[in-house]
Amino acid sequence: MNDKELSQNFHKQLKAFCLTHESCNLSAAGRKLGMSQPAISLLIKSLEQRLQTTLFERRGPKISNTRNGNYLYKLAQPIVKALDELPAEFSALHGNINSGSLDIAAGESTTLYILPRYIQSFKQDYEQVNLRLHNSDGRDPVTMIRNGETDFMIGAMHDNIPDDITYTPVFSYRMMLITAMNHELSQQATIELDDISRYPLIMPPRNRGTFQSIDRVFKDKQLEYYVALEASGWEIIKKYVSMDMGVSLVSEFCLTGEEDITEMSVDQFFPSSSYGIIARTGKIFSPAARQFIQTLDKDFFADEENDD
To answer: Cα–Cα distance between 295 and 289 in angstroms, integer?
Structure first.
């Protein structure tokens, strides 16, 4: 094996190691590299032999990081990332970001209502960037970010944010009460919270942040309420509200103005919801990721640029 082949193989070994270290899962690393689990295992064993150390503790099918593995990851991850992104970085220096890939995670609602115009604009300017959208519904955003499954995530995160994760709000939306056309509530000049509590509610699942925020407000006011139906997805909720099966409280971003329902602001009772960018603390964004984020928030990197 010549020097070039040795260098390429070492890069492949380090990349396999970093991806495995992030997820503690050989199969997950293999999927990202388009390789089988045994091939990833062989690369890591070769790297361990090369460095004469043990990078993972193996207990049957499960693996865990060793101290030496943690040391190597700190050294290798920036190098692997820099090599992977070098072509895109070089192109960006010449004003060309039409290369590379970009992985964005978001919930179905964010992907359906918030992102379309930004994605359309980005793809018109950078059509050669391989843009991949990942559905984060039902997934732990912190785990997805830590595992390196996505460059960043767009969603909501308010409480108990870990030190290695950053959340930067970008969008803010009011809470709206929606009812069927000509519903009794739509005829009232003013609406109080106890007025809403008297009608059956159609709500998102109980494990979702929206449900928990609404529940908190009613409990703070010591008001009982009745959930007639739980449904996953704003389109489903709007459909059943239009059928007069109940009323609902939704974020205004899911309303297009074309629905056969009545909309009323209730932000005097319910806090606005924020959606923003979730990423690893200190993450170095690729040129494509930076450009997409700046389509969402042109000031996102302002502090970083001022430091320069």
So the answer is: 10
What backbone phi and psi angles, to 5 degrees, belong to 221? -90, 5
Are 55 and 184 in contact by the 8 Å Cβ rule? The answer is no
DSSP-derived 3-state class of residue 157:
coil
**Is the pLDDT reported for residue 278 higher than 90?**
yes
| Cα three-residue angle 44-144-158, rounded to 5 degrees | 145
Q: Is 125 helix (H, G, I), strand (E, B) or coil?
A: helix
User: Rounded to the nearest 5°, which phi and psi values hold at 174?
Assistant: -80, 160
Task: For residue 115, name the pLDDT band (cuts at 50, 70, 90).
Answer: very high
Helix, strand, or coil (residue 257) = coil
Query: Which class would CATH give 100-172+274-307?
Result: alpha beta
pTM: 0.67
Q: Which of 175, 227, 224 is nearest to 206 (CA)?
A: 227
Fold matches, 3-88 and 100-172+274-307: no
How many Cβ atoms from other residues are within 10 Å of residue 256's Cβ?
Answer: 8
Select the CATH number that applies to the domain covering 3-88 from these four: 2.60.200.30, 1.10.10.10, 1.10.1740.10, 1.20.140.10.
1.10.10.10
